[in-house]
Amino acid sequence: MIRQQQTKRALGSEIVLTLRGDAAALPGLFELLWREIGLFEHTFSRFLPDSELTIVNQQAGLPTSVSPEFERLLHVALELSQKTDGLFNPLILPALQQAGYKGSWPTPDVQGLAPDYSGSHVAPASEIIVANGTVQLPAGTALDFGGIGKGYLLDQLASILAVEGCRDFWLSLGGDLVMDGYDEADEAWRVSIARADGNGMAAQVAATHGERLAVATSGITKRRGPGWHHLIDPRTNRPAKTDVLTATVCDASATNADVFAKCLVLLGSADAADFVKRHNLPRTVLQIQAKADTIEVQTRGL
Amino acid sequence: MKQYRLTNRQQQGRMVVLTMRPATPRARFEFRAGQYIAVGFKRFGRRSPMRCFSLTNAPNGEGELQIAFRGQGDFTRSLAALQSGAELFVGGPYGSFTVPADQHHSLVYLAAGIGITPFMSLLRRQIQVGSQLPVTLLYSCRTLDDIPFAPELLQMAKDHSWLTLRFLVDQAPGTFRPHPAVIPGKLTSEIVMEFCDPNADYYICGPPGYNKQAVAMLHENGIMSSQIATEAFGQGNRLQIAGFAAQNLVYSLTAAALMVSVGGIFTLSNLRHKTSTAATTAQSVQQTAPATSAGPDSTTTTPTPAPTVTAPSTSGTAVTPTPPSPSPTPTYYQPPVSSVS
Prior knowledge:
The structure holds two protein chains of two kinds.
Chain A: E1 2-10, E2 13-21, H1 26-44, H2 52-58, E3 64-65, H3 68-83, H4 93-100, E4 129-131, E5 134-136, H5 149-163, E6 168-173, E7 176-180, E8 190-194, E9 201-206, E10 213-219, E11 223-225, E12 228-229, E13 232-233, E14 238-239, E15 244-251, H6 254-278, E16 283-289, E17 295-300
Antiparallel strand pairs in A: 1-2, 2-6, 3-5, 4-5, 6-7, 7-10, 8-9, 10-15, 11-12, 13-14, 15-16, 16-17
Helix pairs in contact in A: 1-5, 5-6
Chain B: E1 2-12, E2 15-22, E3 36-43, E4 46-47, E5 51-54, E6 65-70, H1 74-80, E7 87-94, E8 107-112, H2 117-129, E9 135-141, H3 150-159, E10 163-169, E11 182-184, H4 189-195, E12 201-206, H5 208-220, E13 228-232, E14 239-240, E15 249-250, H6 253-262, E16 298-303, E17 337-338
């Protein structure tokens, strides 16, 4: 048994794949994972002119045939939008671009690279029609899976590994992680949660018995300009005004963890506790901007 | 080796920029824009191997040195993780990828990826001395995402009319141009013809494959070998190809010292190349950086139960390239960290 790790940049982030297993089997597993990531990017990237997502967006207002994979992710997104009372809205892209268009290329976030939907409007996700392989977006809107894609893909990758018999791994897509099994010391993987100010770690979390666990962190610490960050509040269509610098959610599902982490940031510390209780989130970490230059770390269930 | 201290660390996208100052006044040395240095550091109390990096700053008389790199391998990741105040060991300066002080022909810089680094030093130096010599920079990148020094280069082009700047972006979507300076696609003979001056001097820096093809394109357009200087970047050891394509100078302290001592004859005006046969058909430059769907940027392997750490070189003055291991040797493992994506 060996542990092997591969890193690469894709989906606009650093991807780290760490697997433990038989030396002969690992190369094939890595190849499988990278291929899956490439396919996902090709289907769901809003930066690629020929991705399925771009085609759907270009046909907003008209019924468009989509692949089973696209329909599946869209169903999951719509479910989570309903579950979070619209706090997660996959149609938020126009507002994101309107808020961030000032920070256009060549800043590292390459805001100017994607097709421009800043002239479109935001509609409730409930207005999307999807059935039997066809999707119809409300006219003048644009869809994006940025708020859910990484978590969803992590769940897919973890499922692939389970089917292939790989029991011990951790995978990271830009800081959102899923892990299963044990490390080489036969202990459950331990994940550190970075401090919001970048100085060290705020907390650590591990799966109790090596069961599958996803850890997703969202926040407003990656700024694209003064007073601007990339988390848009669907209630205002503007960058969220919140005292939560970062929120980390641990859940068996990376998809849920991804979406719920963003929701906690949007809600702010005052309303986050209620959300955590309502959705029964077992383990969370909130890093809150307390007095000037002070970060308060609130952990629950760790 | 001279002792330096890390004074500043900056992260610009995926690129790390380190600034260092001499630990003592005697450690200070002067360099010329376009040259490179060898850098090592201490790890687990022992000296690491040395690696070469182009200097990106212009000489400022205070001995300050600046390098930029992407933390993709074990060495560069460890280097990127150093904190302010860390001790560094510096050898050099080396190299002849420099512009003579009496240069009067216009300049064309062809860069690919992180090969932009020596050109940053050359451009900053030109600004520093107030030269108005026309410069065209054609900078080839794989994607629009995270191009090293892009904002600064754009500002330079805006502030200095002598600089013509174009980004040639291989994976820019379709004909989408987020900025007038962006040209979707790779470097081609046609682009060379459009932007290049038959009387200019040419400097090329990138992976060996890119350099070879760029030189071929220049020859196709009637540019003489005596007008061309190249500097090749490779993974691991640096290949200093001072205009003689047939010779690969694998970096070692001995070889570098030899280059320094004979470097005087490698200035652009003295280069004597063999004239290579120009290709008769246009060809585009192949970026050697891997596409998204290709292999990983890095792989580390760890046997269970405990990882083995490769001990860095402890030799005090002799510096040799690290030989390839017969089997994967784990030296760096990135532990799981959850952060804002």
